[in-house]
Specification:
heterodimer, A: alpha+beta, 5-stranded mixed β-sheet, 4-stranded mixed β-sheet, globular, B: alpha+beta, 5-stranded antiparallel β-sheet, elongated
C-alpha cells in the first residue's frame, strides 16, 4: 500500500472511530484475530494435509508406497511450517539493554514508581533499566512471539533525568505506567505487543519477498493485504492510548508538570540529538575508542540549557510540527491541545517560551548518592553498546581523510567539478555540511543545477531553519537524478516541522507515483478515461521538428499531439497519436503502425516524457482520446 | 516459459527487433549470448502455430539454458518510451555528465545499445575532462564484456584523476583480468587502509584475493582476505569465505586460523552457507522420525487373519486374552510382533504357537500376511497379477492349505482384488480365499500340468483332520492320469487301517488302480477285511465297490442298506445304477433316506436333484432348491437345477427372474456370471443367444458357438470349429455332431468326414473316467451293427454320457427305434443343462 493510500486509510478510520474508542478497540481486535486466525489456519491446514497423507499411508500400509506418501507428508509438514517458524527462530525480538536498577540502589525512584503504579492501577515492570537516551519508555518483550509471555522493561534515559524536574519526571513515569494500567485495558497492551511482533515478522517476510516457494509467496500475499489494514487500526488505537496516558499523567501528577516535560523533551531532546551527540561522535574521527566522561559532559551541557536562539526556534517548531502517520506519538501541539481541552486551560497552548533549566533535576533527587556510580555504569554500557559503530565511524573517517589527502595531492590548479564534488562530499561526511559549504558554493557557481550540491546546501539551510533550503531541494526533485530520494526525505521532514500539510501531501503523492511501476504513470484504458489532456506547450521549433519527422513517414494518415495536464510529475508528459492508411482488407492491429511508432519514439526529442501511440492496439482508446482535444491535430494528409 | 508436449503446446513465433549481447545468465550463471526480441506467443500443434496468445517482449534469453524474462510487448514499449524520453528530456534540459549518464543507463536498460553508444560518444566529446563519466562508461563497457572499451575509458579516467576510487577500481579490474595482479594490488592500496570498508565496496579486494589464490600466491591472497575479515568481522561467519580462508591458511601452513569461531546458534547457522544443509537435515530428521514412528506403528499393528471355512463360529483367544468369535470366513485380529499362543476353541480346544515377526527394514517395504487356518480347511490361492486396467492376469498361482499358521512375506491385496485404479503393468501379489475345497484347486493345477503341486496340495488337505469328502477321490483321479499313480496308492494305502473306516479314503484307494489286477487286489483286501469284521457295513460296501460284476455289486449294496438303511454310499451306488438305466423315480426313492440321514457329499445332492427333475417331481425340486439358493445364493448347480425345474413346469418367466437375480448377485460378488447367462439360454433352448452372451475366445465360448451352429444346421461350420487343437470339445460334443450329421445324411462327405468324427467321439468315450463301461460305449459307436437292447440297458454309464450315445445309436441304427427311443427319452428326462438336450429330443422324436 502506498503512503498516500495508507494515510487516507488512517484519516478515514480516524474520522470513523472519532470518539468511539471501544469500537476502535473491537475492530482492531478483529483484525488482529484475523491475522492470528490465518496464521493458525495455516498451521492447521498444513497439519491436516500432512495428517491425511499419514492416515492414507497407514491405512494402505503398502510398504514402499506408504513410505513415499510419508515422505511427501514430511516435506509438506516441514516446509509448510518452517516458512513461518523460521521467522520466530531467526528473527527474535531481543530484550532491551541498559544498566539494571534495583530498589536498593534507588529507593526513592522505586517508591515513586510503586506509588504511581498503585494509584494508576498498573503492574510494576519486571526490570528497570537506565540508558543514555533522552527518553523513557516501557517495552514488552514477548519471549514466544505471538504466543506472548512477555517481560516488561521500564527504560529511563539518564539525559532525561538530567533535563526534567522531579515533578516533570513523575509525570513522564505516570504516562508510561498509564499505558499498562488496567484502565487502559489489557486488550490494548496485547494489541500493542501483537503489532510489534507482527511488524517484525512482516519486515522479515518482506526483506526478500521475491524469493521463496509457493508457501512463502502465499503468506506474503496475505501479509501485503492484511498488514496495512491491521496496522492502521492498531496505530490509531496506540495513538488514542497516548492521549489517554497523557490525561492520566496530568490527573495523577499535574498538567503543568506534564506539559513542561513535553516542552523540555522537545527542545532539549532536539538539542541533544542534533548537536550534542554529533559533537561527541566527532571524536570518533580522531580516536579509535569511545571518549570518556560523556554522561558528565551531557549533564553539564543540559544544566546550562540549549542556546537561546536555536532553542526558541525548536520550541516554536514544536507547536507547528504535524502529527504524522509514521509515529504513534502525536505532535507536541496536538498533545498540549488535548490537555488544554480536557482541563480547560488555554495557557498550556499559549505559553511558548523556552523553559529555563529546572533548579533541581530529577537526577539530583532520584539518583542520590548512587549518581556517580550509576553515571559511570551508564557510560560503560553506552561505550560497549556503541563500540562497533564507533569503530566503524573511526574507520570511515580514516578512509575519508585518506581520500581527501590523495585528492589534495593530485589536484592540479583549478580542479574539475567532479573533483570538487568528491571533496565536498568527503568533507561533509567527515565533519559537517558547514565545512563543505565553500566547496559547495564553488560547485554551484560553476554548475548552478548540480543536484548533489543543491541537495547539500538545501539540507544545510533547512538545518539552520532557513526556508530557502526547501526551494533548493525542490529543484533537485524536479528532474530525474540520484539525489531525489534523499532530498525528498529532508523536504518531508521540513514540511512536517513547519506544519505545511498541503506540501507534505503533494510530496507523498509524488513519491508514491515515482516508487510505483512506470506503467502506473501511463494513462491506461481503465484510468485513461479520467486523464485530463490539453494542447501541448511546445516551442515552434520543436513543433516543426516533429512535423518534419512525421512528414517523412509514408502512408501516415493523421497525427495528434496532446499533453497530460494533471500529472504530478516534474516533467511534462506528451502523447503523440499516429494513424497510418491501411488497405480495406487489413483488420485489427496494424503492425506497421506499431513499428512506425517505435521508430518515431527513437527519433523524436521533446522537452519531457512522451509516448507515441499507434491508432490500433491495446492503447487505441487512449490514442483516440487525443482526437477529442480541439486543435490537437498535428498532421492530416487526407 | 512456453512448452510443447509431442508438438502440442505453446511456442514463440518470429523474432523482431532482435538485439544480443554477451552476459551472465541469471538462471544458469553461465556467460552466454543473451538475446532480447519482440515475438508472438502462439498455441502450436505439431509445432505449427494455430492461434496467437499475445505479443511479448523477451528479455535476455540465454543461449545456453533458454531461460528468459518476458512481458507484454505493448507494456514494454510504453515503459521504454517513457523512461528513455524522460531521461533524454532531463539531459537536454540540463546537459550535465550526471543527467547524461542517467539517460545512457536507461537506454542500456531498454536494450537501445546503438543509441546509448551514440550518446556515450556525445558525452565523451562534451565532457572530455570528466573523470567520473569515463569511469562510468568503463563500468558500462565491463558489464557488456567489452574489455577493450572499458580499458580505454578507465585509462582516461585514471589519467585525469589517478586518486579517484572509481578510476582506480576500474583500472584494477582491467589489470586483474589481464593477469597483472601486482598492478591491480597497487591500484587498490587505498582499500587496504583500516576503515576503507566503511567507505568503499571491497568486493574488488576479494576478487583480487581469489585471483591471487588461483595464481598460487597464497600468502598475498590470504592477506587480502584477512583485511576483509578485519573490516567486516561478520564475513567470518560466511561459509564460502571461511572455506577460502581455510584453504589458503592450509596452503601457507598456518596452524591456528584467524577465523572467528563459527556461530553455532540456529539463527547464526541459518544465515550461513549451511542453511540448505540445515533445512535438508531438518527435513530428513523429521522424515527419519516419522519413518521410525511408522516402523513402530507397523510393529504394533500386525494383523492375524483367522480363516474359518468350517461353517461354524470358532472362538480364538490370543495369549489367553478375551476370546474372539470368528463367525465370518475372515476375521482380522491385531497383534504386536512377537511370539504368541493362539487357542482355538471348540469341543477340543487347540493351541497353536504363532510367531508374527518380520525384519526391521522389511517392515517399511513389505506387507506380510499371517493366516490362522482353522482346521486347515481353507484353500488360499496366492498369485502375482499384472493389472491391465480392466482385469488382472494371473501369472502364477499357488495354492496353500493346511496350517494352522500360513505366512506370506509380501502381499499387496489380501482377499481383495487390485482396484481399477491400480497401476498398469505393475506386479501385484494377491491372496484369494477359494470357495470349496482343495479339489478344485488341484484340478486347476493338474490342468496346468502341475500335477506334483496338485498332489502336494491334496495331500496337505488330506492330512488335516476332517478333510473334504471329495478330496480323496480327486486325489486318486488326478494321480491316475499321471505318472504318480503309485505315489497316490502308497499315500492312500497308509490310511486303510484307520478305524472307523473312512469310506471316501478307501474308495479313493480302490479308484487309484482300477486295472483288473488292482481291482482284484482291492477285492482280496476287502474280502479279508470283511472276514475280520463281517458286520461292518462300510467294509461290505467297499467290497461291493471293488467287485467287478455288477449283479454281485448290487447284491452287496442292498445287503449294506439292509444293515444300515440309507447308507449313503450304498444308496449312491444303487441309485447310480438305476439312473444309468433311466429309472429316475426309483433312484430318487433310494436316495431320499440317505439324504435324510446326514450331510451328503455334493454329488449325491446333484444326483438326487436330477432324479427329482426327471421323475416328474419338478415342483418338489423347485421348492427344495428355492430354500437351498437362499442359503447359497451363488451355487450355480442349484440355480440352474431350479431353472430346469421351472422350465419343466412351463414357468419360463419365473425361470428368467431366477437367472436375473442370480446374475445380479454374482455381479455384486464380482463373480463371473457369463456362464450362468449362457447356460440359462441353453436351458431355454436359445442357442444363438447363448452363443452371443459369451466371449468366443474362451473354451466355454467355443463350445457354445459349436452347439449354436449345430442347432442352426451349420454342421460344416461346427466340424471346422471342432478341429481346433486341445481338449476343448468333450466326447458328448463330438457324438452330438455325429448325431446331427447322421440325422441330415447317413454317408461321409469330403467336408464332414463322419467316420473321423465317430472315431474321435469313440476315443473320447474310451478315455472318459467311466473305465470299462466307457470302453464298451466306445466299441458300440464304432460297431457297424446295433448293440443288443440288454447290452445297452445294462451299460452302467452316467446319463450325461449315455443319453447322447443312445441318441447317436438311435439315428445310426434306425431299427433300434422301437426300444432305444424310449430308453433315450428316459435317460434324458427333463434335463436341459447339457448342450445336447435339444438334439437328443429331436433324435428321439424324429422318424
Amino acid at each position: 500500500m502506498t503512503r498516500t493510500k495508507y494515510s487516507s486509510l488512517v484519516d478515514k478510520l480516524s474520522r470513523r472511530y472519532d470518539g468511539r474508542p471501544s469500537a476502535l478497540r473491537w475492530i482492531t481486535l478483529f483484525w488482529a484475530a484475523l491475522g492470528i486466525g490465518i496464521f493458525l489456519l495455516w498451521f492447521l491446514l498444513i497439519g491436516i494435509i500432512a495428517t491425511l497423507l499419514v492416515m492414507v499411508a497407514l491405512r494402505e500400509n503398502q510398504g514402499s508406497g506408504s513410505a513415499l506418501i510419508l515422505f511427501f507428508a514430511t516435506l509438506i509438514l516441514f516446509f509448510g511450517w518452517w516458512v513461518v517458524i523460521r521467522h520466530f527462530l531467526v528473527r527474535r525480538i531481543s530484550a532491551p539493554t541498559g544498566v539494571g536498577l534495583s530498589p536498593q540502589e534507588m529507593p526513592l525512584l522505586f517508591q515513586t514508581m510503586s506509588a504511581l503504579a498503585a494509584e494508576i492501577g498498573a503492574p510494576m515492570p519486571h526490570q528497570v533499566l537506565l540508558s543514555a537516551e533522552m527518553n523513557a519508555s516501557i517495552v514488552e518483550q514477548p519471549r514466544f512471539g505471538l504466543v506472548g509471555w512477555s517481560r516488561r522493561y521500564l527504560i529511563i534515559g539518564l539525559p532525561l533525568l538530567d533535563t526534567l524536574s522531579p515533578d516533570e519526571f513523575r509525570a513522564v513515569l505516570a504516562h508510561e505506567f498509564a499505558h499498562f494500567s488496567h484502565q487502559d485495558g489489557r486488550v490494548g497492551h496485547w494489541l500493542y505487543r501483537v503489532r510489534r511482533v507482527w511488524g517484525a515478522l512482516v519486515e522479515d517476510f518482506n526483506e526478500n519477498s521475491s524469493s521463496g516457494g509457493l508457501f512463502r509467496k502465499l503468506l506474503i500475499a496475505f501479509f501485503n493485504w492484511w498488514w496495512p489494514r491491521f496496522n492502521s487500526r492498531a496505530f490509531l488505537l496506540s495513538r488514542s492510548q497516548e492521549y489517554e496516558a497523557d490525561a492520566v499523567a496530568a490527573r495523577i501528577v499535574s498538567r503543568h508538570a506534564l506539559a513542561c516535560s513535553l516542552r523540555r523533551f522537545r527542545v532539549e531532546g532536539r538539542w541533544l540529538n542534533t548537536e550534542l551527540w554529533k559533537e561527541i561522535w566527532q571524536n570518533a574521527n580522531k580516536q579509535a575508542e569511545p571518549v570518556q566522561g560523556v554522561m558528565e559532559q551531557i549533564r553539564s551541557r543540559l544544566r546550562q540549557g540549549a542556546p537561546v536562539d536555536r532553542a526558541q526556534i525548536w520550541a516554536d517548531e514544536g507547536f507547528t510540527t504535524l502529527t504524522t502517520h509514521g509515529d504513534t506519538h502525536p505532535s507536541l501541539y496536538d498533545r498540549l491541545s488535548a490537555l488544554s481541552k480536557s482541563f480547560s486551560e488555554p495557557s498550556l497552548l499559549t505559553d511558548r517560551q523556552v523553559l529555563p533549566p529546572p533548579p533541581e533535576t530529577a537526577s539530583n533527587v532520584y539518583l542520590g548518592v548512587a549518581d556517580i556510580s550509576l553515571r559511570a555504569a551508564v557510560e560503560e554500557w553506552w561505550a560497549d553498546d556503541i563500540a562497533l559503530a564507533w569503530k566503524q565511524r573511526h574507520g570511515r573517517a580514516q578512509a575519508l581523510r585518506d581520500l581527501l589527502d590523495r585528492s589534495d595531492s593530485n589536484s592540479q590548479g583549478d580542479a574539475d567539478l567532479g573533483h570538487l564534488w568528491d571533496q565536498a562530499l568527503s568533507l561533509s561526511d567527515l565533519h559537517d555540511d558547514l565545512t563543505a559549504m565553500p566547496l559547495i558554493e564553488k560547485i554551484l557557481s560553476r554548475q548552478p543545477a548540480h543536484h548533489g550540491a543543491l541537495m547539500i546546501k538545501g539540507r544545510y539551510l533547512l538545518d539552520e531553519s532557513d526556508p530557502a533550503g526547501a526551494k533548493l531541494l525542490e529543484l533537485v526533485l524536479a528532474q530525474p537524478n540520484p539525489y531525489q530520494q534523499q532530498s525528498a526525505a529532508y523536504l518531508k521532514e521540513w514540511y512536517r516541522r513547519k506544519g505545511m500539510t498541503e506540501s507534505l501531501c503533494k510530496l507523498d503523492s509524488r513519491l508514491d507515483a515515482e516508487e510505483e511501476d512506470l506503467t502506473a504513470q501511463i494513462p491506461t484504458r481503465s484510468n485513461g478515461v479520467e486523464a485530463v489532456f490539453s494542447l501541448p506547450h511546445l516551442s515552434p521549433e520543436t513543433r516543426q521538428s516533429i512535423l518534419h519527422s512525421l512528414q517523412k513517414i509514408p502512408r501516415l494518415d493523421q497525427a495528434w499531439l496532446v499533453q497530460k495536464s494533471d500529472t504530478a510529475e516534474s516533467l511534462p508528459l506528451f502523447i503523440l497519436s499516429i494513424r497510418l492508411r491501411r488497405s480495406w482488407y487489413q483488420l485489427g492491429r496494424n503492425n506497421a503502425e506499431h513499428q512506425v511508432a517505435r521508430n518515431l519514439a527513437d527519433e523524436l526529442r521533446l522537452p519531457g516524457k512522451f509516448l507515441v501511440l499507434p491508432w490500433t492496439g491495446s492503447q487505441s482508446s487512449l490514442a483516440k482520446k487525443a482526437l477529442a482535444i480541439h486543435g490537437s491535430g498535428l498532421l492530416d494528409s487526407r | 516459459m512456453p512448452t510443447t508436449y509431442n508438438g502440442v503446446g505453446t511456442s514463440y513465433f518470429r523474432k523482431n527487433n532482435l538485439t544480443s549481447r554477451q552476459g551472465v545468465c541469471k538462471s544458469c550463471n553461465r556467460t552466454s549470448t543473451l538475446s532480447s526480441y519482440d515475438t508472438r506467443l502462439c498455441f502450436v500443434v505439431l509445432f505449427v502455430p494455430v492461434f496467437p496468445l499475445g505479443r511479448k517482449h523477451i528479455v535476455d534469453q540465454c543461449s545456453s539454458c533458454g531461460q528468459h524474462f518476458q512481458m507484454k510487448l505493448d507494456q514494454w514499449e510504453e515503459q521504454r518510451q517513457l523512461a528513455v524520453s524522460g531521461a533524454l528530456a532531463a539531459y537536454e534540459a540540463s546537459a550535465t555528465a550526471e543527467t547524461g549518464t542517467v539517460a545512457y543507463r536507461e537506454m542500456v536498460r531498454f536494450h537501445q545499445r546503438d543509441r546509448a553508444e551514440t550518446l556515450a560518444r556525445e558525452l565523451e566529446n562534451r565532457f572530455p575532462q570528466d573523470a567520473k563519466l569515463h569511469a562510468f562508461l568503463g563500468d558500462m563497457a565491463l558489464d557488456e564484456y567489452d574489455i577493450d572499451s572499458a580499458r580505454l575509458s578507465f585509462q582516461k579516467a585514471y589519467d585525469l584523476r589517478p586518486e579517484m576510487p572509481e578510476a582506480r577500481i576500474g583500472q584494477a579490474t582491467v589489470q586483474r583480468l589481464d593477469g597483472k595482479l601486482d598492478e591491480a594490488r597497487s591500484l587498490l592500496d587505498f582499500m587496504m587502509k583500516p576503515g576503507a570498508g566503511q567507505l568503499h565496496d571491497l568486493s574488488q579486494v576479494e576478487l583480487l584475493g581469489d585471483a591471487l589464490a588461483r595464481a598460487g600466491r597464497h600468502q598475498q591472497g590470504l592477506d587480502l582476505y584477512l583485511h576483509l575479515l578485519n573490516e567486516f568481522p561478520a564475513i567470518g561467519q560466511a561459509g564460502n569465505f571461511r572455506d577460502k580462508v581455510k584453504k589458503l591458511e592450509k596452503q601457507v601452513g598456518i596452524q591456528s586460523s584467524s577465523l572467528p569461531k563459527r556461530d553455532m546458534s540456529l539463527p547464526g547457522l541459518m544465515k550461513s552457507n549451511a542453511r540448505g544443509w540445515i533445512l535438508a537435515g531438518g527435513a530428513v530428521a523429521l522424515f527419519v522420525v516419522v519413518m521410525l514412528g511408522y516402523n513402530e506403528w507397523i510393529r504394533r499393528h500386525r494383523t492375524l487373519t483367522v480363516v474359518n471355512v468350517t461353517g461354524q463360529p470358532v472362538e480364538v483367544s490370543i495369549d489367553g486374552g478375551a476370546p474372539v468369535v470368528c463367525s465370518e470366513e475372515l476375521t482380522e485380529l491385531n497383534l504386536v510382533e512377537g511370539k504368541h499362543v493362539a487357542t482355538i476353541g471348540g469341543t477340543t480346544p487347540e493351541t497353536v504357537d504363532l510367531e508374527v515377526s518380520s525384519s526391521y527394514f522389511f517392515r517399511w517395504i513389505r506387507r506380510p500376511v499371517w493366516l490362522l487356518n482353522i482346521g486347515g480347511q481353507a484353500i488360499i490361492s496366492s498369485y502375482t497379477a499384472i493389472y491391465d486396467g480392466v482385469s488382472s492376469d494371473d501369472l502364477t498361482q499357488k495354492f496353500h492349505t493346511g496350517g494352522p499358521l500360513l505366512q506370506f512375506p509380501d502381499i499387496n491385496y489380501a482377499f481383495s482384488q487390485p482396484p481399477r485404479s491400480a497401476k498398469k503393468n505393475i506386479k501385484y501379489h494377491v491372496l484369494r480365499l477359494l470357495s470349496g475345497n482343495a479339489a478344485g484347486a488341484a484340478e486347476y493345477l493338474a490342468g496346468k500340468q502341475r500335477v506334483p503341486e496338485a498332489l502336494d496340495l491334496l495331500e496337505a488337505g488330506l492330512k488335516m483332520p476332517g478333510y473334504g469328502h471329495s478330496l480323496p477321490e480327486s486325489y486318486a483321479e488326478i494321480a491316475n492320469k499321471s505318472p504318480f499313480r503309485q505315489r497316490a496308492r502308497n499315500f492312500l494305502a497308509a490310511g486303510l487301517d484307520r478305524r472307523p473306516v473312512e469310506v471316501e479314503w478307501q474308495r479313493a484307494w480302490i479308484i487309484s488302480d482300477e486295472s483288473t489286477e488292482g481291482r482284484s487286489a482291492a477285492a482280496a483286501f476287502y474280502e479279508n477285511a470283511v472276514a475280520k469284521d463281517p458286520k461292518n457295513p462300510d467294509l461290505l460296501y467297499l467290497l461291493g465297490r471293488s467287485e467287478p460284476i455288477v449283479a454281485k455289486q448290487r447284491a452287496l449294496h442292498e445287503k449294506v442298506i439292509a444293515m444300515v438303511p440309507g447308507h449313503r454310499w450304498a444308496s449312491y451306488g444303487i441309485a447310480y445304477d438305476l439312473v444309468a438305466m433311466g429309472q429316475w423315480s426309483e433312484a430318487a426313492k433310494v436316495l431320499e433316506p440317505a439324504l435324510a440321514n446326514e450331510k451328503f457329499p455334493e454329488r449325491l445332492h446333484l444326483l438326487y436333484w436330477q432324479a427329482l427333475l426327471n421323475s416328474g417331481q419338478a415342483e418338489k425340486l423347485d421348492k427344495e432348491l428355492e430354500k437351498h439358493v437362499q442359503n447359497s445364493p451363488l451355487d450355480g448347480q442349484a440355480i440352474l437345477g431350479r431353472v430346469q425345474a421351472l422350465l419343466s413346469l412351463k414357468k419360463e418367466d419365473q425361470a428368467d427372474i431366477v437367472i436375473a437375480q442370480a446374475v445380479e448377485k454374482m455381479i455384486a460378488a464380482e463373480s463371473d456370471h457369463q456362464q450362468m447367462v449362457a447356460l440359462g439360454h441353453c436351458c431355454k433352448g436359445n442357442f444363438n443367444s447363448m452363443k452371443s452372451s459369451v466371449s468366443s475366445a474362451t473354451e466355454f465360448g467355443k463350445r457354445c458357438s459349436f452347439w449354436a451352429d449345430i442347432e442352426d444346421g451349420l454342421l460344416e461350420q461346427s466340424f471346422k470349429e471342432s478341429q481346433v487343437e486341445g481338449d476343448i470339445f468333450a466326447c458328448t460334443d463330438l457324438i452330438g455332431l455325429a448325431t446331427a450329421v447322421t440325422m441330415n445324411r447317413s454317408t461321409d462327405s469330403p467336408n464332414i468326414p463322419l467316420t473321423d468324427i465317430e472315431k474321435a467321439a469313440a476315443a473320447g468315450y474310451a478315455a472318459s473316467d467311466e473305465r470299462e463301461p466307457a470302453q464298451v460305449a466306445s466299441s458300440m459307436i464304432l460297431a457297424s451293427k446295433p448293440p443288443s437292447q440288454e447290452a445297452l440297458e445294462t451299460l452302467i454309464l452316467r446319463p450325461q454320457l449315455k443319453a447322447p450315445l443312445c441318441a447317436y445309436l438311435l439315428v445310426k441304427h434306425p431299427s433300434t427305434r422301437p426300444w432305444l427311443a424310449t430308453l433315450t427319452r428316459n435317460l434324458l428326462g427333463e434335463s436341459r443343462l447339457d448342450f445336447s438336450w435339444k438334439l437328443i429330443r429331436r433324435a428321439v422324436e424324429s422318424k
